[in-house]
Amino acid sequence: MPMAYDDNNIFAKILRGEIPNDTVAENAHALAFRDIAPKTPVHVLVIPKGKYVSFDDFAANASPEEITDFMRLAAEVTRAEGVSLDQGQGFRAITNAGSHGVQEVPHFHLHIMGGRNMGPMVTLRD
User: Fold this and answer.
1) What are phi and psi of 92, to 5 degrees?
2) Per residue in 4-42, pLDDT tens?
3) Among residues 71, 61, 47, 69, which one has the least CA distance to residue 2?
4) How far separated are the first and last CA of the chain, in Å rounded?
C-alpha cells in the first residue's frame, strides 16, 4: 500500500515554522537543514517545500522548477559543507522510500552525508 502524505509529519511542521531547524540553505522550492541525529560529521537533509512522499513521487509529479531548485540546493549544500568533489573527498546522497527502504517520515528527503569514509553502501544477505 502506498504511503500517504501526512500534513502533520515533522518536515511539514518544520516548513510551516512550527518546529525550529538548523537551516543550511534555502531557495524558493527547497530547504536544507542539519539532521538532529547526525550519523556522520556532515549530515544535512534536503527537502522539497511541496507535498511529496518519496523520490519517485517527487520525480514523477514535481514541476521542472521544483526539481531544478531541489537539485541545485543539494549541490549548494555539498559545496557549503566542504564535501563536494571539487572541495572535499566526496559524500553519500541517500533517500529512503516505503517500508523496504525504511522510510520514517512520509515527506521526500535527501540525506547528504560526508566528512568520513562510510565503507560499502550495503552488505547484501540472502
Assistant:
1) -120, 135
2) 889 999 999 999 999 999 999 999 999 999 999 999 999
3) 61
4) 24
Which helix (H) or strand (E) element contains residue 89?
none
Question: Mean pLDDT of all residues in the chain?
Answer: 93
Q: Do residues 92 and 78 make contact, with C-beta atoms less than 8 angstroms apart? A: no
d(CA 114, CA 9): 26
pLDDT on residue 100? 83
Which residues have a catalytic role annotated?
A: 109
Close Cβ partners of 76 (under 8 Å, ≥ 6 residues apart): 25, 32
Cell numbers for 57, please give them. 513521487
**C-alpha span between 52 and 26 (Å, rounded):** 17
